[in-house]
Every structure is written in structure tokens, then in C-alpha cells.
Predict the structure.
Amino acid sequence: MITVKKLVKRFGLKTVLRGLDFVVQEGEFVALLGSNGAGKTTFLRILASLSRPTLGEVRIAGYLLPVQAAAVRRKLGVVSHLPLLYGDLTAEENMRFFGRIYGVAEMSQRIDEVLELVGLTSRRHDLVRTFSRGMQQRLAIGRAILHDPDVLLFDEPHTGLDQDACDMLDRLLRKVAGQGRTVVMTSHDLARVEDLASRFDVLSRGVISASIGRSELGRNNLLDFYQQALAG
Amino acid sequence: MENNQQSSEHKPASNFLGAINAIVWKDLAAELRSRELLSAMLVFTLLIILIFNFALELDPSTRRVATPGILWATFAFAGTLGLNRSMSVEKDRGCLDGLLLAPVDRSAIYFGKTISNLVFMLIVEAVVLPVYSVLYNTNLFNPGLIVVILLGSVGYVAVGTLLSSMAVQTRTRDVLLPILLFPVVIPILIAAVKASSGFLQGLELAEIMPYINLLIVYDVIFTAAAYMVFDYVVEE
């Protein structure tokens, strides 16, 4: 579903990604781990077609970036630590707006389904700026899946959430990922992703330095794996 | 995944126009609720024309000469305020990324933002003209002048929307926009002031037409240029 070959990204003289290779099969849930500044967000922004690669090849669902970016965007849903929502519009108005620019068919029915899924049906007529951070993040997930994308990209979605909101978000992430979607989620919180992902990749020094599947990972040693990957 | 989405390959024009419509609707609906942008622009413009009124204390004949300059200086400053605010709203909560992630040609975002910025600017101008007429005892309800204001505003907003989407990516966006914008819009401001002056002084249309033509050419060229480069401006 996602194939990245020899990806390089430079900002001026600074090289953030140095020939990164990355493959995700359809239906996989990959946790992309790494310390702050490792380039996780930069990598995800390239996958989301928000940033151009300096060198290398990026394909999502067979479409090449940045040449076929519009086709890629049709397949993508993105959630970041910012809600990407308008505070002066209600939850339903936000959904309707994004539904229109994403070209969603049978919009009213789809909005009902999505608001039900994220548990915000009762707050659909409230302004988003009156929502708690957790509710905004749930609505952000609703926005990301509104057009029923094949691939979901989550960039540190738990940032700024309290424990209860994180747990609620995890339940929602499982539900959304369980619908056969391919998911890539960046995080530096190992405990949070341990129960969610089917594969763990570590981004360090601009490349994927280690990768391990859930089945190969013994219980409670994700931390060991992560520390070895960073040290190696 | 089931086919919940209309293919833009099948209906590119409706998707493109639908996205423009949606962005304009969103901007107007959000502004109707918050009234942050329009109120700031209106208060600012009214203060400027009041200050000019007291500072210059012009006699009637000088007033007619100074009016186009005062009007366009006011529109330009207020326009900058509006352009900055309009793009900051998109950037602050990451909404610009939300727009850029839409599977439509990104120039739809540019046209949507340009149209809503133009609407806000025209609303401010529609309020300013009668207030100015009363304060300066000058009749500004001249069809020619209205056309010049429309053409000038289109050009100003066409360039301003493009440059504000560049400036908003930087930390110094509030300062950067006027520094980038004013040198580029000098031709439009000069043409607009000269054409406005011509209509207010009752000159022959033939004498004013070169400036009107300049405004039209500027509008077309800069809208086309913005259409071509917007994708590169907003992408990292």
C-alpha cells in the first residue's frame, strides 16, 4: 500500500531524511517510533503530500508522489496533534465543509455515521471552540475518515490529551483501524502504541534503523527493542 | 474501501467549483459568527479617514484632489489587516493543512480564499464610501469610481491572497505581508488613484481609460500567475 525508496529530505543545508526505505502492506498498523527531532513528522508530511521529497520515490496505493498527489490525497486521511478544524463552525458544519471539499457523496448520511462513530452526535450543533481537546481530537478523526480513505496517517494524535481522553482515543483508533485500513502512526510514547500497532519501526538518524512485527516482539520488551535501535 | 467519494477524474469542474464554493461559504459563515475580521477592518478604516479628516483640514477643491489618495491608502492598509487575519485563521489551528489535504486542484483553495477576501474588502469599502462622503462633503457615488474600486480591489486581493499564503508560513507574518505586498501592488495603487482622480474631477473617459486598462491587465496577469504558482507557494 505504501512504498518508499531512498527518500531524502533536505531543508537548506540540513538533511532530515537520508535515503529512507519503508514498505507498508495493506491492512497493517505501523507505529513509527523515534525521539523528538528524528524526522517522524517530516516523513509523515511527505506521505501526506504536504511536503515534497528532495530525492527518492514515494508511492501510495500505486500513485506516485508528488506527481499524482491529488489521487493520493483521495486515498488518505490525516490526523495530527492540531485538530485541523474551524473553531467558529459547529461540528456538523465542519464535517459538511470538509465533506464538500473532499467530494463526499450522500453527505448527510455519512456525517451521521461518522459523528456516531466518534461519539459526538449529541454535540453536532455546538461550536468546535467549545469542545475539550479530547473531543476536538475525536472530531479530527471523524474528519479524517469522512471520505472513507484506505490509508490513515496519525502524527502524535495523543499530544495534549489526559489519560481518559487518550484511552477513549485508543478505542476509537482501534475501531477505525479495524475496518481494514492501513495505518501509520508516529509516536514517542511506547506504552501508548504497544497495544495498537501490528509493527514497530524506529526512525533514527534519517533512516528506518530497526523494524519488528508484533508476533516477533516478546511481552514488555518494546522498550529494549527501541533502545537497541537507537543505540545501534 | 467502498465508493463513498465522487471521482474528481469524472467531475473535475464540479469538484473544483464545489471546493471554491465550500471555502467561500466556510469563510463567510465563520466570519458571521466571530465578526473578528470585518470589525477590525471597519474600525481601522473609519479611524484612518477620521484622522485624515482632522489632520488635513482641506478646502473643497483640495479635497477633490486628495480624496483618491486617502481612499486608496485606507483600502490598502485595511486590506492588509484583513488578508493577514484571513490566512492566520487557517494557519493557527492547522486548517491550512486540512485544506491542502483535499483531493482537489490546490488553485481551488486560492480562488476560494481570494473570493472571500474580496467580499470582505468590498463590504468594508461599501461602508467607507458613504461615511467618507459625509465627513468630507464629497460625492463618491460615481459609477466610474465604483468600477475602479472593484477592479483595484480584485487586483489587490489577487496578489494579497497569494503573498499572505507565503507570509503566513513565517514567524514574522504580520510584518512580512506589507513588506512583500506593497512593492508588488504599487502599479495597481497608482493606476487606481489616477483613475479615481479622473472620475472625481470629471475628466473625459479617453483620458482615464489607460489607467482602467492597466488595472484590467494587472488583474488578469496576477490572477493567472497566482493560479500557476499557488501549489508551490503552499507546499514545503
Remarks:
- The helical segments of chain A are 40-47, 69-75, 91-101, 107-117, 133-145, 163-177, 190-194, 222-231.
